[in-house]
Specification:
6-stranded parallel beta sheet; 22 helices; binds magnesium ion; alpha/beta; binds adenosine-5'-diphosphate
Length: 585
Amino acid sequence: MSTTTTPSPQGSAKAPQAPHFPEQVTGMYILARALKNVGIENVYGLVGIPITEAAYLIQGQGIRFVGFRHEQQAGMAAATDGFLTKKPGVLMTVSSLGFLNGLTATANATVNCYPMIQISGASDPTMVDMNMGTYEQLDQFNTAKPLVKAAFRCSKAEDIPSAVARAYRAAVSGRPGGVYIDMTTPALGQIMNREDAEKLLYQPVDVYSPVAPNPASVDRAVEILKSAKRPAIVLGKGAAYAQVDDKIKTLIEKYNIPYFPMSMAKGLMPDAGPLSALSCRSTIMEKSDVVMMIGARLNWLLSFGKGKWNPAMKFIQLDVEPQEIDANVPIAAPVVGDMGLALEAILAKMEGATMSTDPTWVPALQAETKEKDAKFATRLDSAKNMMPMHHWTALGVIKPIIESNPDVILVNEGANTLDDTRDAINMSLPRHRVDCATWAIMGMGMGSMVGAAVATGKSVVAIEGDSAFGFSGMDFSTACRFKLPVTVVIFNNGGIYNGIGVPMDKTSDPAPTTLDINARYDKVGEAFGAQTYYVQTPEELSKALTESIASKKPCLIDVQLAADSGKESGHIGYLNPAPLQDITV
Ligand code: ADP
Ligand code: MG
């Protein structure tokens, strides 16, 4: 017979009971064991009531617990871990505000199709439901629900192993995304006989079960691809995530199909490869007759497949999510299923096929690439001697250093800092670029940097706008505590977009876009024992970045830019309701 006791309700003065070691355990122990059982290696979080002991027990299972200063960053780390490893990243938070802070990252993970599980401590739901005003009272379960793929609530310890296994399956199956587990205090504190608890634990089998596409859809896609005169492939981060690099390479190289990558698919095929049409995005949109979307969505980032796009375009779309198909334009050949199985089926069907590609198509794109690249080189060159430095001055220095360290993972956020870095730096390895992605949000930098370093053991360089860094800066200290091989490069132009905002009349306050051009971000690094640099010239930047990457230690470089470097909203200024220079009161 099991002897199960429930701790006293929250709010009562009675202290919770302690289990008798070793014959008794708590729900927290079961949680730690359940995470271990499904193969979780890292948990990112921030402790406090009621999850502190759970975090210790997780460490006790040999799982790394990476403690952050803000839950949102812990969540960004978990999401990046999920993107890079194809296993759910796990975020653990306390209740109420901790839960809400973390939920931002989990919602962002869902939007970006990163597998992740948020586990938050929660008040006794019977008290929440009766609105009794218990400690950190919030109906977290229902708050999370609309923002995640699946949500589970554990009201008793017996539910924990199944919740963890099901959350894992939900996070990685079909279109990956965020999953929430409401881990109530009664479940965490419940005491059970060890023997009974052990019986609950099980090894879930086949946690990721890929689904093959319908063969008729493969036939249709192959027919259209073979008939294309000006074919092209758009690679998205779903293709990078799927880890099917060889199959993509075979399809592109064997059938001589030019490709252009969305930002986080950069490097899946080399940006500077002979079939890369990275610089010919507009030409592909306008002139291609068949475009195969591989793990990319025709959302705002691709003008919804309309406007500039050839109206007679036939889209082939490989995606695991049936509801994505026809989202904005009719898809001529949807191939719905797991990326690996879809590509395998397409390659098998293509075997021995000849393409109908116009012989001038690829050479024309190559000529255009050459011309555009030369123009870009001139642009970098003309900024070479600008003092104070501009974005392009700094990027002219950073580009060759990152490109000669291809195995460094690049994390990137900002407005101009994001756009210009993405355009300037060629990637040559898959899953080596992590940025603010589909929502184009700010505030993922330090979290994603830590997650990338922890998940892969690789060196990471985060190139951050000064504004972007502000959202997560304190979590640079997390990189320092865990002694990670990371370098943060902060482009300080003194503001959001730039540092030359003029306040409206009748105020002595700074303009809404103005930050601090004289801020010494290197001092933030110094506070946590990092190697730091304050650089004003290309030579100083070159030395600082080279040394930092080689050191494999936490480093922070404050790059002094000119206040007038950068424009409003970077490359997406057109989305502003009215440009700043045009508004009047
Ligand atoms: P990008 O921003 O790079 O264009 P998106 O995030 O918009 O990429 O699109 C990624 C797409 O990849 C999503 O529609 C998602 O459903 C799909 N996807 C993710 N993982 C897989 C997979 N393993 N197999 C097939 N499709 C996938
Ligand atoms: Mg700035």
